[in-house]
Amino acid sequence: LGISSDTGAFASFGRPVLFLILGSLFLAEALRKHGLTRRLALYAILHSGGNFRRLVLGLMLITGLLSMWVLNTATTAVLIPVAITIAQRIQRQEVAQRALAILILCIAYSSSIGAIATIMGSGENAIASGLLSENSPSGFGFLDWMKYGLPLVVILLPLSWFLLFQALPVPSIVIDTEP
User: Fold this and answer.
1) Cβ-contact 76, 62 below 8 angstroms
2) Distance of alpha carbon 101 from alpha carbon 83, whole angstroms
3) C-alpha to C-alpha distances, 63 to 4, 136, 163, nearest whole angstrom
4) Is the pTM for the entire model greater than 0.85?
């Protein structure tokens, strides 16, 4: 149609940001396929001693750390089944529904918060980093991004855990850790 040349039309597909996002999605699928996310959640359950508040904090830390290296949407999609499995271990149905809401929100929030820490955390970060790099004489790389993002994550993750339980109070829940 004469709108653009072949080189101009396909230039966007050769950008490093695209490969960064694609690689992150491959990593998320590998984590799911090999069950690493389930193993990490099981680790959180066992180390929480069945205490629901500590379990949520552990799950938020795991989710936040994963979403630093894998796209936050992929991290959330991979960990939601873990939340459902945990909620099914709670005996009382009305408490289990409330706990499931907290677990899903904790995964969603911590995934978004953890994604702030690195360029790989979300597509928006990668695009912003690319633009900052183009407009900065010295460049704006991975470590430059982490200098700003990581301190925010360290502050926001525990704060969101605290606020989540303030907004959605639940009775004392103990998760059965026996097989």
Assistant:
1) no
2) 9
3) 42, 32, 17
4) no
